[in-house]
Amino acid sequence: MKVKSRQAVVGDWIFVIVCVIVSLLCVLPMVNLLAKSLSGSYALVRNEVYLLPKGLNFDAYVQVFQNSKYVWSFVWTVILTVICTFVSLTMTTLCAYPLIFEKLKGRNVINVFITITMFFNAGTIPNYLLMRSLGLLDNPLVLIIPSCLSVYNMIIMRSFFYGIPDSLRESAEIDGASFFQILIKIYVPLSKPVLATLALFYAVGRWNGYGDALMYIKEEKLYPLQLYLFNIINSMNKMEVATNEGFTTPGLGAAMKAAVVMFSTVPILCIYPWLQRFFIQGVTLGAVKE
Amino acid sequence: MAAEKKEEKVKKIVVPKQQVSFGTYMRRYWQLYALLALPLIYLLVFKYVPMAYVQIAFKKYMIGKNVWTMPWANNHGFQYFIEAFQKPAFLKALRNTLLLNFLDLLLGFPMPIIFALILNELPFKGFKKCVQTIAYMPHFLSWVIIGSLSLQLFAKDSGMVNMLVTSLGGKPIPFLTENMPWVFTYVGWGIWQSFGWNSIVYLAAIAGISPDLYEAAAMDGAGRFQKMWHITLPSLKPTIVVLLIMNLGYIMGGGMERPMALGNRLVSDYSEVIATYVYNAGIKGSQFSLTTAVGLFQSVIGIILILSANFVSRKLGERGIW
Predict the structure, then answer these.
(1) Out of B134, B153, B203, closest to residue A26 by CB
(2) Cβ–Cβ < 8 Å for B118, B182
(3) Which of A220, A263, B218, B284 has the fewest CB atoms below 10 angstroms from its CB?
(4) Pick the CATH number of A58-289 from 3.30.365.10, 2.60.120.10, 1.10.3720.10, 3.40.50.2300
(5) What is the value of ipTM here, to two decimals?
(6) How far apart are CA B215 and CA A166, in angstroms?
(7) How many domains does chain B have?
(8) Are A239 and A256 in contact (CB under 8 A)?
(9) Nearest to A26 among B137, B152, B224 (CB)
(10) How far apart are CA B308 and CA A267, in angstroms?
(11) Tens-digit pLDDT profile for residues B28-85
(12) Rounded to an integer, what distance in angstroms lies between the CA atom of residue B133 and that of residue B119?
């Protein structure tokens, strides 16, 4: 390597500075939110909070924990997310694994059957009417089953499976292992990276989604967290809703709202950096196969 | 497609015709079909049955009647399509869908490419990784959260940005309360949420470029930007084309979560898109036939767009998505 010219070093630093600015743009909105959630109501009402909390206190968080509706919604969404992730991973594996066998008769037909669903979506209303006629409206299952298999994710998993050497499963076949045993003993243990990635995708999808609940769920007890937040944030300008929800102290509203949002974001923000290596691989696999 | 054909040929050569009876075959392979059963039933029920429901678009919806036995709509079944196009609310939603998605594509599509190019130039590995992690963060936030951030930052008096503007002596900017500023706020949040995540694919493509090319270019005296322009970008072209085709297919699409979370009553002239129109008129307003027709129109246009984009790109000598 030759020594970099002065011009090149200056260029490097320009790129570094651009990246610092971009990173700040990503982070500052969250910092502002955090500061607001920790600020006193006086400073908030006077619009004095930028990036550091003023009149530091944890009242808003205490109130969030005391609000039983919110706590229930949080717990319910955690349960829902865990179930959803597990069911979806199972379904995705069940769909992807048999399709890697070239000897499988009717494989092409099945592939076409699956691919069509990626391109043609019947639309909101037919889906809604189907849920209604299956009796799934206001049923917790409606938040789990209709989204339990994403063909896109299935393709990612199948690409990963293709990358596992055929010789492994062929030798197991010769040893008399059944296809199910091969799946459990060979493919699943070797596929931890892709399983982690898809688990993240499904979990984030469920944790962040509210459109399906908005359409299919009327019962407030079954509201996932994001729908609950959507309703609070959307109606926060009307004070009466805030009082109905139990957020009574005036001026605390803004801090409260910030705290609720902050608290709902933290679980995912704690998880995703650890899975970064995996999901990069997952996204890339999906793109290559497309 | 071509690759699959090749595979078949290879298979034919390797495995000479070997007649196995159906019984023997099934005894050996039934497990694979058993594993596939659940996913296929799922797709049949939750993806194909709704396709049968699509005929409601051409029929008069009646409660308690089977989809197959409902009477056909007027005008050879196209009554509701015609009605939709006579409704100002739908036309507005159609315009907004096209406008917002077009701006998303125009302003948002180049961002991840530019970001990937910049990241590629960073001299320190650790710093690069750090920037990447931060840039992926917005992708993991829900639209509700982003909607709330949007309020915290851009509200007229309590938003941080407007606080800054007023304290510097400026007039507050109506990011959320006037139509055109709101449109750009909407597009801006879309870019904010997705530029980092979408750069992953480009970074992977860049990582696959042979270092020999750069070394050869450096020998020839190419500078940083010349390398970017003559090596990196051309190597990214196939990826860019594929993603562009896919994105063109979405120009009529889009869910309701984003416009609902970012929009408000003051800007509903521009925040009402097809998805929210279908939700309001269909699920809330029970105009099932009309909104099914709207949904079908949206799906069909989407398919036509993606097919023709693919066709054009292949005609231009690029690799399509199939």
Answers:
(1) B134
(2) no
(3) B284
(4) 1.10.3720.10
(5) 0.89
(6) 37
(7) 1
(8) no
(9) B137
(10) 42
(11) 889 999 999 999 999 999 999 999 999 999 999 988 888 888 889 888 889 999 999 9
(12) 12
